[in-house]
Amino acid sequence: MTGAADCSLGAALRALRTELDLPGAFPPEVLAEAAEAARAPDLSAHEDATDLPFLTIDPPGSTDLDQAMHLERRRDGRGYRVHYAIADVAAFLRPGGALDAEAHRRVTTLYFPDDRIPLHPPVLSEGAASLLPGEPRPAALWRIDLDGDGRAVRADVTRALVRSRAKLDYAGVQQQLDTGAAEEPLALLRDIGRLREEQEVARGGISLNVPEQEIVQQGGSYGLAYRATLPAEGWNAQISLLTGMAAARLMADTGTGILRTLPIAPDGAVARLRRSAHALHVDWPHHVPYAEVIRSLDPTRSNHAAFLQECTTLLRGAGYTAFDDGELPDPAVHAAVADLYTHCTAPLRRLVDRYASELCLAATAGKEPPGWVREALPALPKEMAEGTRRAGTVERACVDLVEAALLEGRVGELFDAYVVDVQERDPAAGTVQLRDPAVVGRIEGGTAPLPLGERLRVRLTRAGPASRTVLFAPA
C-alpha cells in the first residue's frame, strides 16, 4: 500500500468540509443540553437487565457503540434467544429541544479518514449513551426467540438498563471462533449467524460480498486497501438484520411505522445483468434466480468480483417509507432483504433509528406512539434521503481525494487492472480496478470496446487532488 502525505491530505480534507457545507461545531446551547442530559438521563421506565453479560463487536477504536448482544439457548431446548440492546438515545433527548433540532439538521454521522462529524455531541455518542463496557447504560432491549432452524417465533422490546462486559473487534472474534477458543455466548454467534444465513437463502434475500475499498492510516500517511468481509461480520450483520425485520413486523402489525424499502429490480436491469454475466463468463442458467447466482460467486476471482460490482446496480433506489394509516405502503418490502425491514439498530449514528425504536416500544407495550414521533414521521423519509445522500457524497469524495493524492506525480505510468464496468452507450468507456494501489477509476479514450471482467494494461492520464480526479486510458 502506497501512502499519501498526511499534511497535504489533512488540508484537502478540511477544504472538503467547507466545500460540501457540512455541519461544524455543535452550538453552545446544544452542548449544554447534551452535558445536562448526560448527567441526568430519563431512566424512569427502564427495567434492570444488568445481570446479562452483554458484549459489543465493532471495528477497533470505535467508541460510538450502538449495539450489544447476549446470545443463549432457550430453556425449553427448542432454539435460541437473542438479547440485543440498542442505545436508548431518547432517554437523553428532549423532543423539540436544541439537541433534537440539531440531530434533525445533521441526520447521520459523517466519517472522514482523520475524524468524524457526529450526529450527537461526543459527551453522548461516545460517552453517556454509548454501550461502553463496565457502566450501566439505558437501552431498548430486544428479546427475539428463534426456533432450531433460526426462524423468529417471538419478538418484543422494552426499556432496560444494561451493562456490557466486553468490547470486542471483528478480527479477534473471528480468531476465537476459528480456533475454538470462543465459549458461549460468543460461540453461538456462528451457530445463529449461519442459521440466519440459511433463512436468508430460503426467503430469497442477498448479501453482496463485494471487497470494500477503504481508506487506511499507517503512521503519517493515508492509503487505500481492499478489505474482504470476515464471516464474523456477516454473522453479526445477521443479528442486526433479524432485529430490523422484527421491528418492521411490529410496525406492520400496528399500522404505524417507517420502513427501509427497495423495489424489486425491473426486468430490464436483470436482463442487463444477464448480459454482463455472459460477458464475464459467469454461469447463470435461465431457471436460476440472481440471488442464487450471487451466493455461488468467489470474490477473489476477477470475473466474479466484477460481476458482484455489477450486481450492486440492482440494489440502488433504497429509501425510507413512512405510514400511519393502518395500511402498508407499496412497495413495503426491501428487495435485498426479501422481507419487511427497517433501520433501528444504530440510533447514535442515524436519526431514523431513534424513531423506529420508539414505535416498537409503543407497539410492544400496546400503547399509541408518542405524539412527537407521529408528528415527525411524514418528514423523516425526505430528511433521511438527504442525509444519506450527503453521507454517500462525503464517503466517495474522501476516497476520490486519497486516490488522486496517491497517484499524483505518476501520470503516464502503466498499471495492471481489470475492467469492472462498461458503459452501455459507450462500450469504450467504463471503470477499472487496480490491485496495487487499491484504486477504482474511470477509463476512457480507447477505440475498442472494453473487455468486461478481464485484465487490462492501463495508463494513468490524469491525477489531480485539487479536483479529486483519477482517469485512465487503455495502454
Automatic annotation (TrEMBL):
Domain RNB: 46-366
A biological-process GO annotation: mRNA catabolic process
Gene Ontology CC terms: cytosol
InterPro entries assigned to the protein according to its UniProt record, in alphabetical order: NA-bd_OB-fold, RNase_II/R, RNase_II_C_S1, RNR_Ribonuclease
MF terms in GO: RNA binding; RNA nuclease activity
Coiled coil: none
Record-linked SUPFAM superfamilies: Nucleic acid-binding proteins
Origin: domain of life: Bacteria
Record protein name field: RNB domain-containing ribonuclease
The organism of origin for this protein: Streptomyces anulatus (Streptomyces chrysomallus)
Taxonomic classification: Bacteria, Bacillati, Actinomycetota, Actinomycetes, Kitasatosporales
